[in-house]
Amino acid sequence: MQNWSKTLTFSSSEVAEPCSVDELQKLTLDTPSLKAIGTKHSFSEVADTDGTHASLAKFDQFIELNPERGVVSVGAGVRYGELGDYLHKRGYALHNLASLPHISVIGACATATHGSGNGNGNLGTAVRAMELVTARGSAEVFSKETHGEQFQGMIAHLGALGIVTKVDLEVMPTYSVAQTIYERLKLAELERNFNAITGSAYSVSLFTTWRDNLVDQVWLKDKLIPNYPPRRDVEFYGALAAQRKLHPIRELDSTPCTDQLGTPGAWHERLPHFRLSHTPSSGDEIQTEYFFSRHDAPEAIRRIFALGSEITPVLFISEIRTVAADEQWLSPAYKNDRVGIHFTWKPDREGVERVLPIIEAELADLNPIPHWAKVFRLDPEVVRSRYPRLKDFQELARDLDPRGKFRNNFLDRYVL
Length: 416
Hints:
Distance between the termini: 26 Å
Oligomer: single chain
Number of helices: 12
């Protein structure tokens, strides 16, 4: 079994496909080493195991809206694309989405995956409750209201606490978004106006190939206000409005991308970069992402541009996004507004392995934090040092999984 892009082969000895909580509970009791697997959009070994994989592909895909509580309950088999369509038709929405609607809700929250926006927390900040099958084989419900501070240690759990079968997410009234793209933003303008640029729309993404001191594309996703006209500016900090639809990787066809050119649409059809019905990004790729304090973002970007000649031979595209601070113990944005610098690499494992240490060494004093589900080579001790609540999480994991049923080599190295 391989991951989504076929660049990582999992080590599991067998794959089980439970279809209900009861089946999953029995599997958990009968299996000494177990890890859940969802849409397989992971590039690190965070979800790997040499034991049994519990595939959630055929698991419960129910969605149930509770307007009185202001939440939607989501089963483990649901992807953001299906959830967005369901909510919008009923007049509701989520606060944000990642660039891909193809990923599972539960897997994205478990790895602190995020969208973009100076004021938008990662996807897990919407989680209000979860149902977890623990190592004891019991299905237990944990919630923000009942478990308070401890619950913040359970949202981004990396599969170390058990297998999540359902989550409750906070919802809001539906809204419309218009997406406008600007081309060729100069690095000097970005450095001078970083916070203003990343705060100029509800969600902002900057795409660059680290060449010519230019940001190739600026994607501005404006949350539309009734009776307020969409963005019509032909220039944005010296960058010019695109006159045609674009793919982040300029050479590729823009058909898989969500509508642009300022055309208004539902939130779930504009906040992602790609349509659910198409293959996202380039398909065959490797991904890396590092988070930095928002204050250090211009310096980090400047240094990476200086490494352009090392990076570009193995790079498809990079994306720069901002994420608001949150309270989750294993979130890279724990109590700190962050910028994420993302690399979509060509499927050249040897080339990526060569360039990662160069990037990490150049940025070491800026304290980069890697995305848990992407490829990185930082020393495990360095990674652990970035999380002030790590010991609290380790204690929580020992309590819920005392024999290490849900542990794997990745968790042993970087977390536990």
